[in-house]
Design a protein that fits this description.
The structure holds two protein chains of two kinds. The relative contact order of chain A is 0.17. By secondary structure, chain A is an alpha/beta fold. In chain A, helix 1 runs parallel beside helix 5, helix 1 packs parallel to helix 11 and helix 6 packs across helix 15. Chain A has two domains: 326 residues, FAD/NAD(P)-binding domain (3-Layer(bba) Sandwich); 106 residues, Alpha-Beta Complex (Flavocytochrome C3, Chain A, domain 1). The longest helix of chain B is centred in the last third of the chain and has 22 residues. Chain B has nine helices and seven strands, in the order ββαβββββαααααααα. Chain B folds into two domains: 100 residues, Ubiquitin-like (UB roll) (Roll), CATH 3.10.20.30; 134 residues, Alpha-helical ferredoxin (Fumarate Reductase Iron-sulfur Protein, Chain B, domain 2). Chain B is elongated and about 65 Å long. A five-stranded mixed β-sheet of chain B has the order 2-1-5-3-4. A two-stranded antiparallel sheet of chain B has the order 6-7. Chain B is α+β, with helices and mostly antiparallel strands. Classes of the chains: A alpha/beta, B alpha+beta. Chains A and B meet through helix 4, helix 5, helix 10 and helix 13 of A and helix 1 and helix 3 of B.
Chain lengths: 565, 241
């Protein structure tokens, strides 16, 4: 059996940052179900925050102000020490990326350019046109090539192996060979991304199923704050492809069917640059009031920015509109609607990215440190991936060097890979079953209908019932083709059970949290209740079902205030 | 309106040779070929294998051939195809693994060969590199490359000579050559100074035609040729750099 010191699952920004910061003397490898450059990080457009103070309007910026904006944006659910760590490490992280060749856009003086973003007191979002995720992912991958990091491309991890509270390795399906592979490792870092595809309308890539989060959950790692799901205000109507916050950062307007900039009614001070939770609710409210178009969308108008600015700063967005809608934002407003975008909650880890399971770490969107609390600010997710990916690599390295190899790891990993092989053999022996894609499509509809932007008790309860019904159907899932090389059916089938876990954790957290905070809006409990609810939701998987407990938020520095924009 | 999707199928476990299979499917005119393939898979045949990820033309997963055109499946919109028959095949110039999935190993090997990473001189100055705006903008044509391998699939030289590095890898190298922060030694550039490198290009510009991101890889190859000639000449008269 192949043995490693550190296995990193996921080749997006967080995974690659972890690989680069891990001790080069250790045996490190990245396992990814797609080629790393196909990871969802590549889709990020608008930018990455750091208080560089390069913008003439941002000279007075500082990492402390960045931290305050992040905490306020989180509706005070972020742990303040974690948010401070994120923002303190932002400036050196950007300079390191620049030194590695990231082609950030520049100001006339040659410094890294910075644009305004929602919820931020100063223009501090660094960018490369509107392709920031693409260039950062490529830059990190290039550095991995330079360093000779080992990759298992197109290996789908199916099981996290944990015995007696200690992580021992993984089981994976190698799509290229069609074999089930046991992988022993002293430490494992999950950088598996978000769960966007649990919802019907999402900006996320097709591959963002959330399997990693569910896998950790099943292996005994608790999840934190799962009810906090970010809905991005501006996704392309129908396709739900992201239209970056950069479009508003550069000056775009949101307009309803009466030709009015309706944000005046919701966030008069910041208008289109209010945080995403407020914007998404405002847009949905306008549509629900009959102020939208076709009862589905509003307009994002960029026309007044002019052709030159659109071509120079937002060329990717223009390409998306031209290609997918046949519409040029230079001449016409963009039809937009809110869609699921980001997972604030995730695998419960501390500021070292360590989980309660020894040797198991998580970073990036799959993890919850928590820095985003109840609502993430734009430009903070790439930053979180880079900063905490790096921390995870260092933490796992320290752990491996400081400890001794676990006993009987090989047997446990073998046992789990046999279990997965048996499951495949059982499917092969049958000659029919449920179409897993059909089950998957049902789950998505249930979540979008019942656990979306606006929530109430009854629909949430319905969602929980539906998820449980799907759980009964899931074991009957069938593989129609041969189980071998590039059995792409497995990409859904192996993760579907974990997706149900993730969905149930979201719904459970949302049902129990009888208040409104950040992205979690309860129509039946429309106010924030700090006295009772200023706390993290922790949910654990047990044989009896989901068990929920709560943990205080670290609020040492800033007292929670009413959030006004 | 329903269309016939004629899709190349190959299952390495069950089939001796690839063959076509037809599916009748009624997509929305705004659907992409990728969405159509997903619907066919979800409703008609879950065993259909194809790569996908972002569905917005930035991850480079879904390159294939639609009615003879090399393209990204997610970017090709059904309503813009007039024919009632839509023939979907894998990318040419690569070995088929299963259905529409091909082995991209030669493509990634070429990518690694050109040393695809910034090679600066010494440490970056404190506060970061100062780079003129116009100079950074010059690399933007090349950084939009998503390494989807459409250009490699379309390249007649790669088709007849598996050792040829292909358009994407060479264009990637040109991205670094144009970056004012890069100071790679001549030896690094010399790795492509050969008939399997920049001099192999037939300049028929098939790569420029098929590139879904308008990278114009052939411009990069042309630029590298000029750079190489200039650097060689300079070395002849001035000694090394």
């Amino acid at each position: 059996m192949t043995e490693h010191d550190i296995l990193i699952v996921g080749g997006g920004l967080a995974g690659l940052a972890a690989a680069l910061s891990a001790d080069p003397a250790l045996r490190v490898a990245v396992v990814s179900k797609v080629h790393p450059l196909r990871s969802h990080s590549v889709v990020a457009q608008g930018g990455i925050n750091a208080a560089l103070g390069n913008n003439p309007d941002g000279r007075d910026d500082s990492w402390e102000k960045h931290a305050f904006d992040t905490i306020k944006g989180s509706d005070y659910l972020a742990d303040q020490d974690a948010a401070e760590l994120l923002c303190r490490m932002a400036v050196p992280a950007i300079l390191e990326l620049d030194g590695w060749g990231a082609p950030f856009s520049r100001f006339p003086d040659g410094t890294i350019a910075q644009r305004p973003f929602g919820g931020a007191g100063f223009p501090r979002t660094c960018y490369a046109q509107d392709r920031t995720g693409l260039v950062l992912l490529h830059t990190l991958y290039e550095q991995c090539v330079r360093r000779g990091i080992a990759f298992y491309d197109e290996w789908l991890v199916t099981t996290l192996v944990v015995r007696d509270g200690r992580c021992l390795g993984l089981v994976a399906f190698d799509l290229g060979s069609g074999e089930v592979m046991p992988l022993r490792s002293r430490a494992v870092i999950f950088a598996t991304g978000g769960y966007g595809r649990v919802f019907l309308r999402t900006t996320n890539a097709y591959i963002n199923l959330g399997g990693g989060i569910g896998m950790a959950f099943r292996a005994g790692v608790p999840l934190k704050d799962m009810e906090f799901v970010q809905f991005h205000p501006t996704s392309l109507h129908g396709k739900n492809i992201l239209i970056s916050e950069a479009a508003r950062g550069e000056g775009g307007y949101l307009v309803n069917n009466r030709g009015r900039r309706f944000m005046e009614d919701y966030a008069p001070k910041t208008m289109e640059l209010a945080p995403r939770d407020i914007l998404a609710r405002a847009i949905q409210t306008e549509v629900d009031k009959g102020h939208g178009f076709a009862d589905e969308y509003v307009h994002l108008d960029l026309r007044h920015l002019g052709k030159d600015k659109i071509l120079k700063r937002l060329p990717g967005i223009r390409d998306i509109c031209l290609n997918f809608l046949g519409l040029d934002p230079i001449d016409a407003p963009i039809p937009i609607q809110p869609a699921q975008h980001y997972s604030m909650g995730g695998i419960d880890v501390d500021v070292d990215c360590a989980s309660p399971v020894e040797g198991f770490y998580a970073a990036g969107e799959c993890a919850c440190v928590s820095v985003h609390g109840a609502n993430r600010l734009g430009g903070n997710s790439l930053l979180e991936a880079v900063v905490f990916g790096k921390i995870a690599g260092a933490s796992a390295s320290r752990y491996v060097k400081g400890g001794s190899p676990p006993a009987a790891a090989e047997r446990a990993v073998d046992e789990e890979s046999r279990r997965f092989r048996d499951r495949l053999a059982e499917i092969r022996r049958r000659d029919s079953g449920e179409n897993v894609f059909g089950l998957f499509n049902r789950l998505k509809a249930v979540m979008s209908e019942n656990a979306g932007i606006f929530r109430t008790e009854k629909p949430l309860g319905r969602a929980r019932e539906e998820i449980r019904a799907l759980r009964d159907a899931a074991p009957k899932a069938y593989i129609y083709g041969s189980i071998g090389k590039y059995c792409q059916e497995l990409l859904i089938l192996a993760e579907f059970g974990y997706m149900l876990d993730v969905a149930e954790a979201i719904v459970q957290g949302a049902l129990l949290r009888e208040e409104t905070r950040g992205s979690h809006y309860r129509r039946d409990f429309p106010v924030r209740l700090d006295d009772h609810w200023l706390k993290h939701t922790i949910v654990a998987w047990t044989e009896r079902g989901l068990e929920t407990s709560y943990r205080p938020v670290k609020t040492d520095k800033y007292k929670p205030q009413e959030r006004k924009y | 309106m329903a269309k016939t999707f004629k899709i190349l199928r190959f299952d390495p476990v069950r089939d001796a040779n690839p063959h076509f299979q037809e599916f009748l499917h009624d997509p929305k005119p705004t659907d992409s070929i990728l969405e159509a393939l997903k619907d066919i898979r979800d409703r008609q045949d879950p065993s259909l294998a194809f790569r996908y990820s972002c569905r917005e033309a930035v991850c480079g997963s879904c390159g294939l051939t639609v009615n003879g055109k090399i393209c990204l499946a997610c970017k090709e919109i059904v309503g813009r195809i007039e024919a009632d028959l839509i023939v979907v095949e894998p990318l040419p110039n690569f070995e088929i693994q299963k259905d529409l999935v091909v082995d991209l190993a030669p493509f990634w090997e070429a990518y690694r060969h050109i040393e695809p990473y910034l090679q600066p001189e010494g440490e970056a100055p404190p506060g970061g590199h100062r780079v003129a705006e116009e100079k950074m903008e010059k690399v933007y044509q090349n950084i939009t490359c998503i390494l989807c391998a459409c250009c490699y699939a379309a390249c007649p030289v790669a088709s007849r000579d598996g050792r040829y590095l292909g358009p994407a890898a060479l264009a990637k190298l040109y991205r670094f050559v144009r970056d004012p922060r890069d100071r790679r030694p001549f030896e690094s550039l010399a790795k492509v100074d050969s008939p399997t490198g920049v001099w192999g290009c037939d300049t028929v510009f098939r790569c420029n035609d098929v590139c879904p991101k308008s990278v114009r890889p052939a411009d990069g190859i042309e630029g590298l040729r000029r750079t190489l000639v200039a650097r060689r000449t300079k070395r002849l008269f001035k000694g090394k750099r």
